Amino acid sequence: MTAVVTTGLAAPAAVGALAATEVWATRSLGGSQALAASCLAVVALTVCRRWPWAALITTLPAASLGYVWLAPMVALYQVALRTGPVSTVIGASATAFVYFVPWPHLGPADWAPSSVALTVMFSGLISGTPVILARLVASRRELRARMAELALFRTREHTLETQQTMLRERARLSRDIHDTVAHHLSLIALQASALEVSVPPERRPSVGWCASPVRRP
Fold first, then answer.
1. pLDDT given at position 107
2. Cα separation of 81 and 60, whole Å?
3. Could you tell me which residues come within 8 angstroms of residue 212 by beta carbon, excluding any fewer than 6 positions away?
4. Considering only CA atoms, which of 85, 84, 98 is closest in space to residue 127?
5. Among 64, 75, 71, CA closest to 41
6. pLDDT of res. 2
7. Other C-beta atoms within 10 Å of 173: how many?
8. Cβ distance 211 to 193 under 8 Å?
9. 170/32 Cα distance (integer angstroms)
10. Helices 85-100 and 52-63, interaxial angle, to 10°?
11. What pTM does this model have?
12. pLDDT for res 167
C-alpha cells in the first residue's frame, strides 16, 4: 500500500518537474507575458487530476506560444482519461486548433503547402498522443478489473466445489455408518434370539429383556 501511494505521488511530481524544466529551458524565447503563461500552465498541472478541463483551458495560452508542449499534453491526457469520449474529442480538437493557428505573436504566417502539412502533423501529434495513451491506460485498467473479477469468480467457484465435495463426503459417511450400525444391530438381534432359544425357559425373559432394545418393533 505504501509503495502504491509513493508511486502515485512521485509520478505527478516528476511530470511537474519536467514541465517546469521545459519552461526554464524556453524562458528566453518569449517575453514576460509568455513566461507568465508558461508558469501558469505548470501550476495548472497540480489540479489536473481533480479538474482536468480547468487545467487544460489554463494551459492553452501557453500552448499558443508554440514551444510549450508538455503541460498541455499532460492536461489533455487527464481529460481523455477522466472524462467521456465527447469531452475528449472537444479537448483534442481545441488543443490541435491552438497549435495549428498562426497566432499574431508568432510572427508572419507561412502558408506554403509543406509548412501547412508539417503544422497539421505536429498539431495532430500533440493532440493525438495524449488521447492514445489515455485510452491505453483506461483499457489496461478495465482489463485488470475484469481479470480480478474473473479470479474472484474462480475462487468462489472453487470454494463452492469444495463445500459440495465435503457435503457429499459427509452424506456418504453417514450412509456407511448407518448401514454398518444397522448390520451389527441385526447380528446382535439374531444372536440374542438364538441365545433366547438355547437358554433354559426360566432365563428366557431376562435374555429377551436384554435383547429388546436392538430388536425392531
1. 75
2. 18
3. none
4. 98
5. 71
6. 42
7. 10
8. yes
9. 83
10. 10
11. 0.67
12. 86
Which amino acid is residue 14, in one-letter code? Answer: A
Give the pLDDT confidence of 146-203 residue by residue, as tens digits.
998 988 888 888 888 888 888 888 888 888 777 776 666 677 666 666 665 666 666 6
From the list 66, 55, 56, the residue with the least C-alpha distance to 103 is 66
Q: Please tell me the distance from the alpha carbon of residue 102 to that of residue 172, in angstroms, as a whole number.
A: 84
DSSP-derived letter for residue 101 is S
82 and 130 Cβ atoms separated by less than 8 Å: no
CB of 156 closer than 8 Å to CB of 101: no
The DSSP call for residue 103 is -
With helix as H, strand as E and coil as C, how does 151-201 read? HHHHHHHHHHHHHHHHHHHHHHHHHHHHHHHHHHHHHHHHHHHHHHHHCCH
Query: For residue 124, what are the CA distances in angstroms to 67, 94, 97, 158, 173?
Result: 15, 11, 9, 50, 72
> Would you report the helix, strand and coil content of the chain in percent, each value rounded to 5?
85, 0, 15
What gap in Å lies between CA 105 and CA 95, rounded to an integer? 18
Q: How many helices (H) and strands (E) does the chain have?
A: 7, 0
Quick check: 23 and 36 in contact, CB under 8 A? no
- First-to-final CA distance of the chain: 69
The cell numbers describing 180, all together, are 454398518
